[in-house]
Amino acid sequence: MWGGGAARALPRALRRRRAAAALPGAAGGLRGIVQDFNRKRQLKSSSTLPVSLTEMKSNMFTVKRPFSTSHSSVDSKEMKKFQLLAHKWWDEEGEYAALHSMNDIRVPFIRDTLLSMSSNYHLGNPLSGIKILDVGCGGGLLSEPLGRLGASVTGIDPVEDNIRTADRHKSFDPVLAKRIQYKSSSLEEIVEESMETFDVIVASEVVEHVADLETFIKCCSQVLKPEGSLFITTINKTKLSYVLGIVVAEKIMGIVPEGTHEWEKFVPPEELERLLESNGFSVKTVNGMLYNPLSGSWSWTESTSLNYAVHAVKSGARAQSHATDTPTETDIDQRSATAGTAATVPDSTV
Predict the structure, then answer these.
(1) Cα 182 from chain centroid?
(2) Could you please report the per-residue DSSP string of 89-119?
C-alpha cells in the first residue's frame, strides 16, 4: 500500500511538512515524486530498481505463484511483522494512519455497492441482516464501521495480539460488542465450519501479504454464499508501485516501516481477475485508488497502476458448473466501461 502508514510518532502537521519537503513542488503530484526519486537514487545505491522495465513487464505476467503444498495462505514472516505493531492499530497518527483514512472511500464503496444490489434498506442500519467476513481484520479498523452500518461482522486474523486489540477496542461500544465477533484464525481454518456462510467477504490490504493467493481465493469462494460479494483492495505490481510503494514510502520518506511490503508479492489486477474468474467469481468492478501523503487522504482514480479495489460476485448455484469459462472480450469491455461508477455514489450515511 502506497502510504500504508504514517511516520511514527510525528504529528500530522509535521508529517505533511516533511512530505512537502520530500516531494518537490508539493502539489506536483506523481510526476514530482518520480523526478525527485531519480535525483535521490544517485545518492542511495540501495534504492536502484532491481530489473529493467521490459523485464518487469515480462515477469509480471509470466511468473506464476507457487501453489503451497501445505495449502495455507498464511506467511509466517508477515505475521511476525504485524505482531510487532499489534498495539498500534488505533493510533490514527501512527503506522496505520493511511488505513484509517482509507475508510473514507472503502466503507462507502462497500456500502453503496451492496445497497445497489438489494431492494431492502434499513434506515440508520443499511447493512442490517448482512453477514460479513473481514479477512485479515487486524485491529478491527474496517470491521467496526461495517458493524456500525448494521452488519453482523466476523473478523479473523492469524495474529492473536491483533485480535486482542480488536476485542478490547470494540468493548468500548456495547452495540459493536454485539454485532462483531473476532477470532484468531486463518481463512483456511474456518472453511470446514463456515461453508457458504457469509453474504460478503472483505479482504482489504491483505492479498499482497498472503503466501498462496490461489488457495486464498479458493477458500473465499468456499465460505461465501452463492451470489455473495467479495471486496478486495491491494497494490498493483508495476514499476510505479515499486518506486512509490517501496523506494519512496519505505526507504526515502519512511512513511511505513522498511520491509512492510515485498514488491514480488504485489498483485496485478489481470492476475487477480484471472484467479477470481477461474474460481467461480464474476468481476464486476475494478477501481484505481490514490493516496496523497500531503493531505493524508485517499481518492478514486481511473489508473490502477498503484492501489486498486475489486468487487466480484460468486456465481449462483446453477452457474457454478461453468465457473472455469473464460470471460469474453465483450464482458471485459463492459466491465471496464462501468468501472468506477460505484465509487462515485455520494457518501451520505457514514
Answers:
(1) 19
(2) TT-TTSTTHHHHHHHHHHHHHHHHHHHHT-S
Overall pTM > 0.90: no
* CB-facing half-sphere around the CA of 90: CA atoms within 13 A: 15
Cα 20 from Cα 168, distance rounded (Å): 36
Reading the chain (350 residues) residue by residue, the pLDDT tens digits are 443 333 333 444 444 444 444 444 434 455 555 455 455 444 443 433 444 444 443 344 333 343 333 466 776 766 666 676 788 899 998 888 889 999 999 999 999 999 999 887 778 899 999 999 999 999 999 999 999 999 999 999 999 999 999 999 999 999 999 999 999 999 999 999 999 999 999 999 999 999 999 999 999 999 999 999 999 999 999 999 999 888 888 788 767 777 778 999 999 999 999 999 999 999 999 999 999 988 999 999 999 999 999 999 999 866 555 544 545 444 545 544 444 444 443 343 33
CB atoms within 10 A of CB 175: 12
Q: What are phi and psi of 172, to 5 degrees?
A: -75, -15
What letter would DSSP give residue 167? H
- Three-state helix/strand/coil letters over 230-283: EEEEEECCCHHHHHHHHHHHHHHCCCCCCCCCCHHHCCCHHHHHHHHHHCCEEE
User: Measuring CA to CA, how many Å separate 335 from each of 56, 195, 234, 328?
Assistant: 26, 29, 19, 11
Contact 73, 216 (CB under 8 A): yes
Q: Please tell me whether residue 148 adopts helix, strand or coil conformation.
A: helix
- Return d(Cα 267, Cα 234) in angstroms, integer: 7
Q: How far apart are CA 195 and CA 137, in angstroms?
A: 20
